[in-house]
Design a protein that fits this description.
Elements lengths: L7 H25 L2 H12 L9 H15 L3 H20 L15 H16 L10
Length: about 130
């Protein structure tokens, strides 16, 4: 196979840009629509938790993706994004675990891909093409 295809650093960069960039869109949407934070706060209150914890979503969907994209503490950024996805799953998506879409795909494909990609980043790290390689 082509030797150019054996490039771990490039693969890690693509992973960081993909998962970080796509989750960042969700975080920016929450920044532009503060009502979404209130909605998440209401969900948390429903579980007996304080509503101010809803601001943690900004850590998992804004700060952590930026950390991953630039490659600064990318493992921690991946852990924060994975944790954010677990909380989103527990708060909103538990009823969809065994559901399929109209096309036959898993109802939680997007959430699963975000979670597993962020988890892969935890174990792989940033690679050489980063502000601070780990």
């Amino acid at each position: 196979m082509l030797k150019a295809l054996h490039n771990d650093a490039l693969g890690k960069l693509i992973l960081r840009l993909a998962v970080g960039g796509l989750i960042l869109f969700h975080g920016v949407a929450k920044l532009l629509n503060p009502g979404s934070i209130d909605y998440i706060g209401g969900l948390l209150e429903g579980y007996g938790l304080p509503s101010f914890l809803a601001y943690g979503v900004l850590v998992g969907e804004v700060l952590a993706p930026i950390m991953a994209i630039v490659g600064w503490q990318a493992r921690i950024g991946g852990l924060l994004m994975a944790g954010n996805m677990l909380v989103a799953f527990l708060l909103v998506h538990t009823g969809e675990v065994f559901m399929l879409t109209d096309n036959g795909g898993w109802q939680l494909e997007l959430q699963g891909m975000f979670f597993l990609s962020a988890l892969a980043l935890v174990f792989l790290g940033s690679g050489r093409m980063a502000v601070r390689p780990d």
